[in-house]
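Hi L.,

As promised, Glutathione S-transferase 3, mitochondrial:
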Amino acid sequence: MGQIDAIESRRGASNKSIKSIIKHFLSPQILTNQKTEKKEKKKKSRMAGVELLLPKEYGYVVLVLVLYGLVNVWMALQVGKARRKYKVMYPIMYATADDTKDYNLFNCVQRGHQNSLEMMPTFFLLTVLGGIRHPLVSASLGLFYTFTRIFYFKGYSTGVPKNRLSIGKYNFIAIFGLMICTISLGVHLLRA
């Protein structure tokens, strides 16, 4: 006697109705749907943890950081073009008069990108942390910082280093604002 027959005989119900109910609930389609539902619930519960920790607006912070990464890739491409134009081959990081007569022009392009790379860890850390408590302010400051870095780089790339400061100098306003956002987070955590 099979399991289905044993269940039917204990309950005293008609064979056809119980068999059809059991087959329905044990059908591959139902089992597949249950597995899919469990996976979706598990996935949602993992994301729910992130969504509970981070405000919805934190997405803007993430997008600004990606934008800054793209700007740095663009700067790296400009350095590559300058290497070809001024014939400064790898592994030379900064050129001398022995390498090319336009060594200052190349060095200014290289330095503009290098400075952005040097500032990236500070910018990312302050934006990521400050954005937890102040996502819109941090994202706005991050966007401002990103655009001022473009002007900083373009000004530096002219070969006249002081040109980097015409608009590029304002990037420090954004860094200072991001420091305030991050300090606010730290104070808030200590008071919680």
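The chain has a mean pLDDT of 86.

Thanks again for sending the construct details.

K.
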